[in-house]
Amino acid sequence: MNAHSPAEQKSSSLRLRVLSALVLAPIVLGAVWLGGTVFIGLLIIVGPLMALEWANLAAPDGAAWRDQVGLTVGVIIYLLTLGVGDAGLAFALLLTMLGLTLAMSIWRGTSSVQTLIGFAYVGGAVAAFAWLRGDSDIGRLTIIWLLGVVWATDIGAYFVGRTIGGPKMAPKLSPNKTWSGLLGGMASAALVGIVIFVFADLESVAVTTTTVIALAIFAGLVALLSQAGDVFESSMKRRAGVKDSGTIIPGHGGILDRVDGLMFAATFVALVIIATHYMVGWMS
Predict the structure, then answer these.
(1) Following DSSP, what letter does each residue of the chain receive, concatenated?
(2) Domain range holding 101?
(3) Which pLDDT does position 177 carry in this prediction?
(4) Structural domain contains residue 229
(5) What pLDDT score was predicted for residue 192?
(6) Is residue 98 part of a domain?
(7) Same domain, 155 and 227
(8) Per the domain annotation, does 74 fall within a domain?
(9) Has residue 256 been placed in a domain?
(10) Model confidence band, residue 235 (pLDDT cutoffs 50, 70, 90)
């Protein structure tokens, strides 16, 4: 049996990645477009899987794996109760599950810090996605805008970084990332964010110079958080001594490997919208 050359292996891996993307992309975009129980159903599937991937990264030796399972159960409970429209009950149940999980980890003498980080990282992102999408046209546009900005960040950072190169951004955590790539990703995100907004043609928001500049700055910040999320997950994989967070997606690795940038970005966008809502209410 002849061994495949590195070039052949790379080409085979690329084909597998493309095929996986062609299968998964319509499923994800279709769920985003339909919203409601379809989108919640998607989160019910991927949320616990991400929690388990986090558990394996946080405790690669398996010592604290059982202490992280509460995150998975909590994510399911949150999404199920949110799906019936009671966000307050969902949040209360999620906090209860977090408390029980922390109590278990303290009783077993394992780290409760990783549980808290996992709660914020996985639980926060899943809750942000569910809340941002909701069941309205604005929610659909918000998620599409978020996906477009994060994908533009990744593409822009990759091509600008490969073309220009220069100083590394985080050589010990993510050796391939450069400062030029970060700036390229932020610029691409700003451009795509503006284009999506303009084509959306919202009746409630006028397209003015001030609006466009503000949106470009916001998209750039989302891009920055997206890259931070990527570096964070890379640091967790390096700490755990693994190449990927999982093996569930052929050619891609785990779910967290594909959505690492979205995790921080979604939580950030949700928090900004909530803060803006309360600030406007307080000032009016």
Answers:
(1) -PPPPHHHHHHHHHHHHHHHHHHHHHHHHHHHHH-HHHHHHHHHHHHHHHHHHHHHHH-TTSTTHHHHHHHHHHHHHHHHHHHTT-HHHHHHHHHHHHHHHHHHHHHHT--SHHHHHHIIIIIHHHHHHHHHHTTSHHHHHHHHHHHHHHHHHHHHHHHHHHHH--SEEETTTEEEEEHHHHHHHHHHHHHHHHHHHHHH--TTS---HHHHHHHHHHHHHHHHHHHHHHHHHHHHHHHHT-SSS-SSBTTTB-HHHHHHHHHHHHHHHHHHHHHHHHHHHHH-
(2) 36-134
(3) 84
(4) yes
(5) 94
(6) yes
(7) yes
(8) yes
(9) yes
(10) confident
